[in-house]
Amino acid sequence: MQLTDLIDIALISYIIFRLYALFRGSTVLRVLIGIVFLWLFQRIASSMNLILTSWAIQGIIAAAAIIVIVIFRNEIRSVLQTKNLKTLLWSYSIKNTQTPIEIISDSVFELARKNYGALIVIRAKNNLQDIVHSGITWNGSLSKEMILSIFWPGNPVHDGAAIIQGDQISQVGAILPVSGQKNLPSQYGTRHRAALGLTEQSDGIVVVVSEETGRVAIAKDGQLSFFYTQENFLKTLREYLNQGDEQRATSKKRFRLETSIAAIVSFLFVTAIWFFFARGMDTIVNLDVPIEYMSRPQKMEILDTSVNKVRFQLSGSSAILKSITPDQVQVRLDLSKGVIGDNSFTITNKNVSLPPGVLLKSIEPTVIDVKLDEQVEKELPVQVDWVGKLPSHLILTDVEIKPEKIVVTGGKSILEKLSTIYTEKVRLDSIEKSGEISVNLTLNPASLKVTQGSSEQIKVKHVVKKRSSYPIQE
User: Fold this and answer.
1) Domain over 375-466 is classified CATH 2.170.120.40
2) Is the pTM of this model over 0.70?
3) Domain 101-242 class in CATH
4) Beta-strand pair 367-387/421-427
């Protein structure tokens, strides 16, 4: 394990921990945990060569990812739309403004004295938009006067529920799902059944005021509790919302413990995954990689090299090694310090480029010999490379070459030895009459180049005549 591996583990661990911190207590987090377990099961199936099972789970995971985005888009959007970047990247949880329960308590018992029915939803952690329907957006500050006016019998929205989030009334006139319990007392009205229905499907708290009896009740976790005194109501609501001194202290301790455990579990989980991928580090492959020569000095050229490829022995996870493409493994030699003549360059890790997670075990050879020469230009006469013999009845009387000379660029030591440059081979036995042919130059060695502006193609005009000993046929 190297420093980059530790950074890799720490970064992914923090990302997982942030997902926990942002979606803590929500349905999104539970679904994400389920997807992670599916992924682990898929990796186990793949390692056991259960091809069909692995393929099927991959499809389920892909579909689940889309479902999470579609179904829980509101919860995801509420997290990502935070204006405070620190909250998104650093804070342990998104802090909601504390609900003023004293105002709710005074308002509820005032409604009870007037026999005004009311249904007040105090949102907890889960988003209620997928449960609550037909609500009218309000976004008004919470006050006793506001609550009394909403549930005044003459108000068109008084039969619906008011949704409270923090110290704001976010919606009014909302319709809640009705409880499906069959054994509820007959005296429970529609408001009580709606309060139970919402708390059965979410962690929200619902306050109910009966229009017929004026009784006050609180619904939580699918259970109704009735209150006859404002003191008991206020005490219970404070406990439910963790606003008591003891509850707040306990909640903070529990929160710190949960976040600490989540951080440790995230780190251990990612570390285990890293070792799962790294357990195949004994896997070794050999790979032949062509050498790339970089920064060749101006007016110098490469005459010869001891090898054109080197063999790498690589180790790493079998999954990573199988996915390597040729362009991910490179070896480059810097020729900027090369001199005319023989040079020896040693290949080190600085010359090698490898994908992450792959280790270089050995290189063969480690030393590359490169012969450099000064690049010069030289004008050479062109000579046709004739082969074979003319037909016995013909004689070659004249040959005209265009151009007669050509300027060639190449190594000084090579050009010093050359006095003529030849064309490709031209067979004499294929010539039947006078004419003109086009042939290419033969540049040997291949390091020789025709200067810019010149052509490697040579035109050869030849004249043949009948030998005098052969009669001319009409």
Assistant:
1) yes
2) no
3) alpha beta
4) parallel
Helical H runs in 288-432? 318-322, 412-415
Polymer length of the chain: 474
Helix (H) or strand (E) holding 466: strand 457-466
Q: CB–CB of 368/411 below 8 Å?
A: no
Contacts of 176 (CB under 8 A, 6+ apart): 119, 121, 131, 132, 161, 194, 195, 197, 198, 206
Model confidence pLDDT, tens digit, residues 231-275: 898 888 888 877 655 555 666 777 778 788 888 888 888 888 777
Q: Encode 237-252: b = buried (16+ Cβ within 10 Å), e = exposed.
A: bbebbbbeeeeeeeee
Q: What is the pLDDT of residues 187-218, one digit of tens each?
A: 788 888 888 988 888 888 899 998 888 889 99
Nearest to 138 by CA among 118, 106, 165: 165
Measured CA to CA, the distance from residue 221 to residue 156 in angstroms comes to 29
Q: Are 216 and 227 in contact (CB under 8 A)?
A: yes
In CATH, the architecture of 283-373 is Beta Complex (2.170)
